[in-house]
Design a protein that fits this description.
Keywords: Glycosidase, Hydrolase, Secreted, Signal. By secondary structure, the chain is an alpha/beta fold. It has eleven helices and 16 strands. The chain starts with 5 loop residues before the first helix and ends with a helix. The structure holds 2-acetamido-2-deoxy-beta-D-glucopyranose (5 copies).
Protein backbone atom coordinates (compact mmCIF):
# COMPACT_ATOMS: atom_id res chain seq x y z
CA UNK A 1 0.00 0.00 0.00
CA UNK A 2 1.10 3.50 -0.67
CA UNK A 3 1.69 4.59 2.89
CA UNK A 4 1.77 8.33 2.43
CA UNK A 5 -0.70 9.07 5.18
CA UNK A 6 0.75 6.74 7.73
CA UNK A 7 3.71 8.75 8.92
CA UNK A 8 1.58 11.02 11.10
CA UNK A 9 -0.27 8.10 12.63
CA UNK A 10 2.96 6.25 13.29
CA UNK A 11 4.61 9.33 14.73
CA UNK A 12 1.81 9.39 17.26
CA UNK A 13 2.50 5.82 18.30
CA UNK A 14 6.29 5.71 18.26
CA UNK A 15 7.21 7.90 21.25
CA UNK A 16 5.15 5.77 23.63
CA UNK A 17 6.36 2.53 22.11
CA UNK A 18 10.01 3.59 22.11
CA UNK A 19 9.93 4.22 25.83
CA UNK A 20 8.47 0.77 26.30
CA UNK A 21 11.14 -0.77 24.09
CA UNK A 22 13.74 -0.12 26.79
CA UNK A 23 12.07 -2.96 28.62
CA UNK A 24 12.87 -5.57 26.00
CA UNK A 25 12.79 -9.08 27.37
CA UNK A 26 13.39 -12.56 26.11
CA UNK A 27 10.42 -14.55 24.93
CA UNK A 28 8.97 -17.00 27.33
CA UNK A 29 8.94 -20.66 26.44
CA UNK A 30 5.54 -21.42 25.02
CA UNK A 31 6.23 -24.64 23.16
CA UNK A 32 3.33 -26.33 24.90
CA UNK A 33 0.81 -23.74 23.70
CA UNK A 34 2.30 -23.35 20.22
CA UNK A 35 -0.28 -24.28 17.55
CA UNK A 36 2.40 -25.96 15.44
CA UNK A 37 6.16 -25.96 15.87
CA UNK A 38 7.92 -24.05 13.11
CA UNK A 39 10.42 -26.47 11.62
CA UNK A 40 11.45 -27.14 8.04
CA UNK A 41 11.46 -24.82 5.05
CA UNK A 42 8.42 -24.01 2.95
CA UNK A 43 8.95 -24.99 -0.70
CA UNK A 44 6.81 -24.95 -3.83
CA UNK A 45 5.55 -27.78 -6.01
CA UNK A 46 3.61 -26.74 -9.09
CA UNK A 47 0.99 -24.24 -7.90
CA UNK A 48 1.23 -25.29 -4.25
CA UNK A 49 3.40 -24.44 -1.29
CA UNK A 50 4.66 -27.49 0.56
CA UNK A 51 6.18 -28.17 3.95
CA UNK A 52 7.88 -31.47 4.66
CA UNK A 53 6.14 -32.96 1.65
CA UNK A 54 2.60 -31.83 2.61
CA UNK A 55 0.54 -28.99 1.16
CA UNK A 56 1.13 -25.78 3.11
CA UNK A 57 -1.54 -23.06 2.96
CA UNK A 58 -0.17 -19.51 2.84
CA UNK A 59 -2.83 -17.35 4.47
CA UNK A 60 -2.61 -14.42 6.84
CA UNK A 61 -2.04 -10.71 7.07
CA UNK A 62 0.43 -7.89 6.66
CA UNK A 63 2.07 -6.25 9.65
CA UNK A 64 4.69 -3.93 8.18
CA UNK A 65 5.01 -2.23 11.57
CA UNK A 66 5.88 -5.09 13.93
CA UNK A 67 9.64 -4.59 13.65
CA UNK A 68 9.56 -0.82 13.12
CA UNK A 69 7.55 0.86 15.84
CA UNK A 70 9.58 0.16 18.98
CA UNK A 71 7.40 -2.68 20.21
CA UNK A 72 8.46 -4.66 23.24
CA UNK A 73 8.66 -8.40 22.76
CA UNK A 74 5.45 -8.83 24.73
CA UNK A 75 3.75 -6.39 22.33
CA UNK A 76 5.14 -8.37 19.39
CA UNK A 77 3.66 -11.47 21.04
CA UNK A 78 0.25 -9.78 21.28
CA UNK A 79 0.39 -8.69 17.64
CA UNK A 80 1.24 -12.18 16.40
CA UNK A 81 -1.25 -13.77 18.78
CA UNK A 82 -4.04 -11.66 17.25
CA UNK A 83 -2.97 -12.70 13.75
CA UNK A 84 -2.52 -16.37 14.64
CA UNK A 85 -6.03 -16.46 16.14
CA UNK A 86 -7.44 -15.97 12.63
CA UNK A 87 -5.90 -19.28 11.55
CA UNK A 88 -3.06 -17.50 9.75
CA UNK A 89 0.13 -19.31 8.77
CA UNK A 90 2.05 -16.34 7.36
CA UNK A 91 2.72 -12.65 8.03
CA UNK A 92 4.31 -10.20 5.60
CA UNK A 93 6.52 -7.55 7.17
CA UNK A 94 9.19 -4.96 6.39
CA UNK A 95 12.81 -6.00 6.84
CA UNK A 96 14.15 -2.50 6.22
CA UNK A 97 14.27 1.02 7.51
CA UNK A 98 16.91 3.23 5.94
CA UNK A 99 17.48 6.37 7.96
CA UNK A 100 19.83 9.32 7.69
CA UNK A 101 19.54 10.10 11.42
CA UNK A 102 19.30 7.29 13.99
CA UNK A 103 15.77 7.11 15.38
CA UNK A 104 13.62 4.31 16.77
CA UNK A 105 13.97 0.90 15.16
CA UNK A 106 16.10 1.12 12.01
CA UNK A 107 18.20 -1.33 10.04
CA UNK A 108 20.57 0.84 8.03
CA UNK A 109 21.99 4.31 8.70
CA UNK A 110 23.20 6.42 5.76
CA UNK A 111 25.71 9.24 6.16
CA UNK A 112 27.42 10.94 3.23
CA UNK A 113 26.92 7.99 0.90
CA UNK A 114 28.03 5.34 3.38
CA UNK A 115 25.61 2.78 4.78
CA UNK A 116 26.08 1.29 8.24
CA UNK A 117 23.94 -1.67 9.18
CA UNK A 118 22.43 -1.58 12.67
CA UNK A 119 23.18 -4.93 14.31
CA UNK A 120 22.06 -3.81 17.76
CA UNK A 121 18.89 -3.94 19.87
CA UNK A 122 17.08 -1.36 17.69
CA UNK A 123 18.33 -3.11 14.52
CA UNK A 124 18.88 -6.73 13.58
CA UNK A 125 18.61 -7.91 17.20
CA UNK A 126 15.13 -6.37 17.15
CA UNK A 127 14.31 -8.34 14.01
CA UNK A 128 15.55 -11.50 15.74
CA UNK A 129 12.82 -10.80 18.32
CA UNK A 130 10.23 -10.39 15.56
CA UNK A 131 11.16 -13.78 14.11
CA UNK A 132 11.05 -15.48 17.52
CA UNK A 133 7.69 -13.92 18.39
CA UNK A 134 6.19 -14.99 15.04
CA UNK A 135 7.45 -18.55 15.47
CA UNK A 136 6.10 -18.80 18.98
CA UNK A 137 2.62 -18.43 17.44
CA UNK A 138 3.30 -20.90 14.63
CA UNK A 139 3.72 -18.12 12.04
CA UNK A 140 6.26 -17.70 9.25
CA UNK A 141 7.40 -14.36 7.82
CA UNK A 142 7.48 -13.06 4.29
CA UNK A 143 10.16 -10.39 4.62
CA UNK A 144 10.32 -7.48 2.18
CA UNK A 145 13.77 -5.93 1.95
CA UNK A 146 13.17 -2.43 0.56
CA UNK A 147 10.36 -0.07 -0.44
CA UNK A 148 9.38 1.61 -3.68
CA UNK A 149 7.80 4.33 -1.56
CA UNK A 150 9.61 6.76 0.70
CA UNK A 151 8.21 5.32 3.91
CA UNK A 152 11.02 3.84 6.01
CA UNK A 153 13.68 5.01 3.59
CA UNK A 154 13.61 2.58 0.72
CA UNK A 155 14.93 2.94 -2.81
CA UNK A 156 15.08 6.74 -2.88
CA UNK A 157 17.55 6.83 0.03
CA UNK A 158 19.98 4.55 -1.83
CA UNK A 159 19.61 6.64 -4.98
CA UNK A 160 20.06 10.04 -3.36
CA UNK A 161 22.92 8.88 -1.15
CA UNK A 162 24.88 7.20 -3.93
CA UNK A 163 24.02 9.09 -7.11
CA UNK A 164 23.14 12.55 -5.84
CA UNK A 165 20.05 12.47 -8.10
CA UNK A 166 16.39 11.74 -7.49
CA UNK A 167 15.91 9.47 -10.52
CA UNK A 168 13.98 6.69 -8.77
CA UNK A 169 14.72 4.08 -11.44
CA UNK A 170 18.47 4.41 -10.92
CA UNK A 171 17.76 1.96 -8.09
CA UNK A 172 17.42 -0.73 -10.76
CA UNK A 173 20.36 0.23 -12.97
CA UNK A 174 23.12 2.14 -11.14
CA UNK A 175 25.91 -0.34 -10.35
CA UNK A 176 26.85 1.33 -7.04
CA UNK A 177 23.23 1.31 -5.90
CA UNK A 178 22.80 -2.34 -6.87
CA UNK A 179 26.00 -3.25 -4.99
CA UNK A 180 24.83 -1.37 -1.88
CA UNK A 181 21.43 -3.05 -1.93
CA UNK A 182 23.06 -6.45 -2.46
CA UNK A 183 25.28 -5.76 0.54
CA UNK A 184 22.24 -5.08 2.72
CA UNK A 185 20.42 -8.11 1.34
CA UNK A 186 23.48 -10.28 1.95
CA UNK A 187 23.76 -9.26 5.62
CA UNK A 188 20.03 -9.63 6.28
CA UNK A 189 19.52 -12.91 4.42
CA UNK A 190 22.74 -14.50 5.70
CA UNK A 191 21.67 -13.89 9.30
CA UNK A 192 18.61 -16.12 8.80
CA UNK A 193 19.91 -18.77 6.38
CA UNK A 194 18.86 -21.67 8.63
CA UNK A 195 15.78 -19.98 10.08
CA UNK A 196 12.50 -21.86 9.38
CA UNK A 197 10.55 -18.83 10.63
CA UNK A 198 11.34 -17.11 7.31
CA UNK A 199 8.89 -18.18 4.62
CA UNK A 200 10.23 -16.02 1.81
CA UNK A 201 12.35 -13.01 0.90
CA UNK A 202 10.84 -10.28 -1.24
CA UNK A 203 12.90 -7.95 -3.39
CA UNK A 204 10.84 -4.81 -2.80
CA UNK A 205 7.45 -3.55 -1.79
CA UNK A 206 5.61 -2.54 -4.98
CA UNK A 207 8.58 -1.88 -7.29
CA UNK A 208 7.73 0.53 -10.09
CA UNK A 209 9.69 2.81 -12.42
CA UNK A 210 8.51 5.82 -10.41
CA UNK A 211 8.50 6.29 -6.65
CA UNK A 212 6.76 8.71 -4.34
CA UNK A 213 7.99 11.86 -6.10
CA UNK A 214 7.25 10.53 -9.60
CA UNK A 215 10.71 11.60 -10.84
CA UNK A 216 12.47 9.13 -13.20
CA UNK A 217 15.33 9.24 -15.68
CA UNK A 218 12.85 8.71 -18.50
CA UNK A 219 14.66 5.49 -19.42
CA UNK A 220 12.80 2.92 -17.35
CA UNK A 221 10.65 0.24 -18.99
CA UNK A 222 9.24 -3.06 -17.80
CA UNK A 223 12.38 -4.71 -19.16
CA UNK A 224 14.49 -2.55 -16.82
CA UNK A 225 12.74 -3.93 -13.75
CA UNK A 226 12.54 -7.50 -15.09
CA UNK A 227 16.33 -7.45 -15.59
CA UNK A 228 16.81 -6.17 -12.04
CA UNK A 229 14.47 -8.89 -10.67
CA UNK A 230 16.51 -11.53 -12.51
CA UNK A 231 19.76 -10.24 -11.01
CA UNK A 232 18.56 -9.73 -7.43
CA UNK A 233 16.58 -12.96 -7.19
CA UNK A 234 19.53 -14.95 -8.55
CA UNK A 235 21.75 -13.14 -6.06
CA UNK A 236 19.58 -14.22 -3.11
CA UNK A 237 19.43 -17.78 -4.43
CA UNK A 238 23.24 -17.79 -4.64
CA UNK A 239 23.53 -17.14 -0.91
CA UNK A 240 20.36 -18.82 0.40
CA UNK A 241 19.11 -22.10 -1.02
CA UNK A 242 16.67 -22.69 1.86
CA UNK A 243 14.16 -19.90 1.38
CA UNK A 244 11.70 -18.92 -1.31
CA UNK A 245 12.12 -15.66 -3.23
CA UNK A 246 9.34 -13.44 -4.58
CA UNK A 247 9.10 -9.90 -5.89
CA UNK A 248 6.54 -8.09 -3.70
CA UNK A 249 5.03 -6.28 -6.70
CA UNK A 250 1.42 -5.36 -7.34
CA UNK A 251 0.98 -7.87 -10.16
CA UNK A 252 0.41 -5.29 -12.92
CA UNK A 253 0.10 -6.70 -16.43
CA UNK A 254 1.80 -5.14 -19.46
CA UNK A 255 -0.77 -5.21 -22.25
CA UNK A 256 -0.40 -1.89 -24.11
CA UNK A 257 -3.72 -2.35 -25.95
CA UNK A 258 -5.63 -2.35 -22.65
CA UNK A 259 -7.30 0.85 -21.52
CA UNK A 260 -7.41 -0.35 -17.90
CA UNK A 261 -4.63 1.20 -15.78
CA UNK A 262 -3.45 -1.94 -13.89
CA UNK A 263 -3.35 -3.90 -17.18
CA UNK A 264 -1.82 -1.39 -19.59
CA UNK A 265 1.78 -1.52 -18.43
CA UNK A 266 2.58 2.08 -17.56
CA UNK A 267 4.27 1.41 -14.22
CA UNK A 268 7.10 -0.80 -15.50
CA UNK A 269 5.85 -4.17 -14.31
CA UNK A 270 5.09 -7.12 -16.59
CA UNK A 271 3.60 -9.74 -14.26
CA UNK A 272 3.66 -12.44 -16.94
CA UNK A 273 7.32 -11.92 -17.80
CA UNK A 274 8.37 -11.65 -14.15
CA UNK A 275 6.53 -14.82 -13.07
CA UNK A 276 8.52 -16.75 -15.68
CA UNK A 277 11.88 -15.88 -14.06
CA UNK A 278 13.33 -19.20 -12.80
CA UNK A 279 14.68 -17.67 -9.55
CA UNK A 280 11.24 -16.28 -8.65
CA UNK A 281 9.39 -19.01 -6.73
CA UNK A 282 5.91 -17.53 -6.63
CA UNK A 283 4.00 -14.57 -7.98
CA UNK A 284 2.58 -11.71 -5.92
CA UNK A 285 -0.33 -9.38 -6.56
CA UNK A 286 -1.98 -6.54 -4.66
CA UNK A 287 -5.56 -5.32 -5.01
CA UNK A 288 -6.65 -1.71 -4.37
CA UNK A 289 -9.38 -0.87 -6.89
CA UNK A 290 -10.19 2.49 -5.34
CA UNK A 291 -6.53 3.66 -5.31
CA UNK A 292 -6.27 2.55 -8.94
CA UNK A 293 -9.29 4.50 -10.15
CA UNK A 294 -11.50 1.41 -10.46
CA UNK A 295 -14.54 3.05 -8.91
CA UNK A 296 -17.38 1.81 -11.11
CA UNK A 297 -17.67 -1.60 -9.44
CA UNK A 298 -14.66 -2.16 -7.18
CA UNK A 299 -15.89 -5.52 -5.91
CA UNK A 300 -16.41 -7.01 -9.37
CA UNK A 301 -13.21 -5.44 -10.70
CA UNK A 302 -11.34 -7.21 -7.89
CA UNK A 303 -13.07 -10.51 -8.65
CA UNK A 304 -11.78 -10.28 -12.23
CA UNK A 305 -8.26 -9.30 -11.06
CA UNK A 306 -8.13 -12.38 -8.83
CA UNK A 307 -9.40 -14.64 -11.62
CA UNK A 308 -6.82 -13.26 -14.07
CA UNK A 309 -3.98 -13.89 -11.62
CA UNK A 310 -5.27 -17.40 -10.99
CA UNK A 311 -5.19 -17.93 -14.76
CA UNK A 312 -1.55 -16.72 -14.89
CA UNK A 313 -0.77 -19.07 -12.00
CA UNK A 314 -2.20 -22.03 -13.92
CA UNK A 315 -0.54 -21.03 -17.20
CA UNK A 316 2.91 -20.91 -15.57
CA UNK A 317 2.28 -23.62 -12.97
CA UNK A 318 3.67 -21.50 -10.09
CA UNK A 319 1.92 -20.34 -6.92
CA UNK A 320 0.45 -16.84 -6.88
CA UNK A 321 -0.46 -15.06 -3.65
CA UNK A 322 -2.78 -12.07 -3.34
CA UNK A 323 -0.45 -10.67 -0.68
CA UNK A 324 -2.14 -7.29 -0.14
CA UNK A 325 -5.75 -6.28 -0.63
CA UNK A 326 -7.98 -3.77 1.00
CA UNK A 327 -10.85 -1.34 1.02
CA UNK A 328 -11.65 1.23 3.68
CA UNK A 329 -15.44 0.84 3.47
CA UNK A 330 -17.86 -1.92 2.50
CA UNK A 331 -15.36 -4.35 3.96
CA UNK A 332 -17.76 -7.19 4.65
CA UNK A 333 -19.29 -7.48 1.19
CA UNK A 334 -15.98 -6.75 -0.55
CA UNK A 335 -13.89 -9.25 1.38
CA UNK A 336 -16.58 -11.92 1.24
CA UNK A 337 -16.66 -11.69 -2.56
CA UNK A 338 -12.87 -11.60 -2.92
CA UNK A 339 -12.20 -14.44 -0.45
CA UNK A 340 -14.81 -16.58 -2.20
CA UNK A 341 -13.15 -15.86 -5.54
CA UNK A 342 -9.72 -16.76 -4.17
CA UNK A 343 -11.11 -20.12 -3.14
CA UNK A 344 -13.14 -20.80 -6.28
CA UNK A 345 -10.43 -19.60 -8.71
CA UNK A 346 -7.74 -21.80 -7.20
CA UNK A 347 -5.48 -18.84 -6.35
CA UNK A 348 -2.79 -20.27 -4.08
CA UNK A 349 -2.95 -17.94 -1.08
CA UNK A 350 -3.77 -14.55 0.40
CA UNK A 351 -2.67 -11.99 3.00
CA UNK A 352 -4.97 -9.13 3.92
CA UNK A 353 -3.72 -5.54 4.30
CA UNK A 354 -3.48 -5.21 7.24
CA UNK A 355 -3.43 -6.62 10.77
CA UNK A 356 -4.10 -4.45 13.81
CA UNK A 357 -3.81 -4.92 17.56
CA UNK A 358 -4.56 -2.97 20.70
CA UNK A 359 -1.24 -2.96 22.55
CA UNK A 360 -0.14 -1.67 25.92
CA UNK A 361 1.38 1.34 24.13
CA UNK A 362 -1.79 1.99 22.14
CA UNK A 363 -3.34 0.80 18.90
CA UNK A 364 -1.04 -0.27 16.07
CA UNK A 365 -1.13 2.01 12.99
CA UNK A 366 -4.57 2.52 11.48
CA UNK A 367 -4.57 3.50 7.82
CA UNK A 368 -8.28 2.84 7.43
CA UNK A 369 -7.58 -0.68 6.13
CA UNK A 370 -6.51 -2.01 9.53
CA UNK A 371 -8.57 -4.91 10.90
CA UNK A 372 -8.44 -5.04 14.70
CA UNK A 373 -9.68 -8.17 16.50
CA UNK A 374 -12.99 -6.54 17.40
CA UNK A 375 -13.70 -5.31 13.83
CA UNK A 376 -16.39 -6.96 11.73
CA UNK A 377 -13.87 -8.08 9.08
CA UNK A 378 -11.86 -10.12 11.59
CA UNK A 379 -14.32 -13.05 11.72
CA UNK A 380 -14.18 -13.11 7.90
CA UNK A 381 -10.44 -13.69 8.12
CA UNK A 382 -11.12 -16.63 10.42
CA UNK A 383 -13.86 -18.08 8.21
CA UNK A 384 -11.90 -17.84 4.97
CA UNK A 385 -8.55 -18.97 6.37
CA UNK A 386 -10.36 -22.16 7.39
CA UNK A 387 -12.06 -22.39 3.99
CA UNK A 388 -8.75 -21.99 2.14
CA UNK A 389 -7.13 -24.69 4.25
CA UNK A 390 -10.14 -26.95 3.62
CA UNK A 391 -9.91 -26.32 -0.15
CA UNK A 392 -6.24 -27.28 -0.07
CA UNK A 393 -7.06 -30.47 1.77
C1 LIG B 1 29.32 14.42 6.08
O1 LIG B 1 29.70 15.50 5.27
C2 LIG B 1 29.57 16.78 5.90
C3 LIG B 1 29.84 17.86 4.88
O2 LIG B 1 30.94 17.50 4.10
C4 LIG B 1 30.50 16.83 7.11
O3 LIG B 1 30.36 18.05 7.79
C5 LIG B 1 30.16 15.70 8.06
O4 LIG B 1 31.08 15.65 9.11
C6 LIG B 1 30.17 14.35 7.33
N1 LIG B 1 29.65 13.35 8.25
C7 LIG B 1 30.27 12.19 8.44
C8 LIG B 1 29.63 11.27 9.42
O5 LIG B 1 31.27 11.87 7.83
C1 LIG C 1 18.72 7.92 -20.64
O1 LIG C 1 19.35 7.08 -21.59
C2 LIG C 1 20.15 7.79 -22.55
C3 LIG C 1 20.60 6.79 -23.59
O2 LIG C 1 21.32 5.75 -22.99
C4 LIG C 1 21.30 8.48 -21.84
O3 LIG C 1 22.07 9.21 -22.77
C5 LIG C 1 20.73 9.42 -20.80
O4 LIG C 1 21.77 9.99 -20.03
C6 LIG C 1 19.78 8.67 -19.85
N1 LIG C 1 19.16 9.63 -18.97
C7 LIG C 1 19.41 9.65 -17.65
C8 LIG C 1 18.76 10.77 -16.90
O5 LIG C 1 20.09 8.82 -17.11
C1 LIG D 1 5.04 -9.05 -21.13
O1 LIG D 1 5.63 -10.31 -21.02
C2 LIG D 1 5.03 -11.32 -21.82
C3 LIG D 1 5.69 -12.63 -21.47
O2 LIG D 1 7.06 -12.54 -21.61
C4 LIG D 1 5.20 -10.95 -23.27
O3 LIG D 1 4.57 -11.91 -24.08
C5 LIG D 1 4.60 -9.58 -23.52
O4 LIG D 1 4.86 -9.18 -24.84
C6 LIG D 1 5.21 -8.56 -22.56
N1 LIG D 1 4.56 -7.27 -22.74
C7 LIG D 1 5.15 -6.30 -23.41
C8 LIG D 1 4.37 -5.05 -23.62
O5 LIG D 1 6.30 -6.40 -23.83
C1 LIG E 1 -20.83 -0.08 -0.90
O1 LIG E 1 -21.50 -1.08 -1.66
C2 LIG E 1 -22.77 -0.68 -2.11
C3 LIG E 1 -23.44 -1.89 -2.76
O2 LIG E 1 -22.52 -2.65 -3.49
C4 LIG E 1 -22.63 0.49 -3.06
O3 LIG E 1 -23.87 0.92 -3.50
C5 LIG E 1 -21.93 1.64 -2.33
O4 LIG E 1 -21.66 2.67 -3.24
C6 LIG E 1 -20.62 1.15 -1.75
N1 LIG E 1 -20.03 2.22 -0.97
C7 LIG E 1 -18.75 2.58 -1.09
C8 LIG E 1 -18.31 3.70 -0.21
O5 LIG E 1 -18.00 2.02 -1.85
C1 LIG F 1 -12.45 -2.18 19.80
O1 LIG F 1 -11.73 -2.11 21.01
C2 LIG F 1 -11.08 -0.86 21.22
C3 LIG F 1 -10.17 -0.98 22.42
O2 LIG F 1 -10.86 -1.51 23.48
C4 LIG F 1 -12.10 0.24 21.31
O3 LIG F 1 -11.46 1.47 21.49
C5 LIG F 1 -12.90 0.28 20.03
O4 LIG F 1 -13.93 1.23 20.11
C6 LIG F 1 -13.50 -1.10 19.74
N1 LIG F 1 -14.08 -1.06 18.41
C7 LIG F 1 -15.22 -1.67 18.13
C8 LIG F 1 -15.64 -1.62 16.69
O5 LIG F 1 -15.87 -2.26 18.96
Amino acid sequence: MLLKNLILLIAAVVPLASAASIERRKHGVRGSTSPSAVTGFVKTSGQEFTLNGETFTVVGANSYWVGLTGLTTSEMDQAFSDIAATGATAVRTWGFNDVTTPSGDYYQLWTNGTATINYGPTGLENFDNVVEAAKSYGLRLIVTLTNNWDNYGGMDVYVSQLTGTDYHDYFYTNPEVIAAYENYVNVFVSRYLNEPGILAWELANEPRCAGTTGVTSGNCTATTITTWIEELSAYIKSIDSNHLVAIGDEGFYDIPTSSDYPYQGGEGINFTANLAIPTIDFGTAHLYPLSWGETADPIEWGVQWIENHAASQKAQNKPVVLEEFGVTSNKTETYTAWYQTIISSGLTGDLIWQAGSYLASGPTPNDGFTVYPNDTAYPLEIEYAAALKARNG
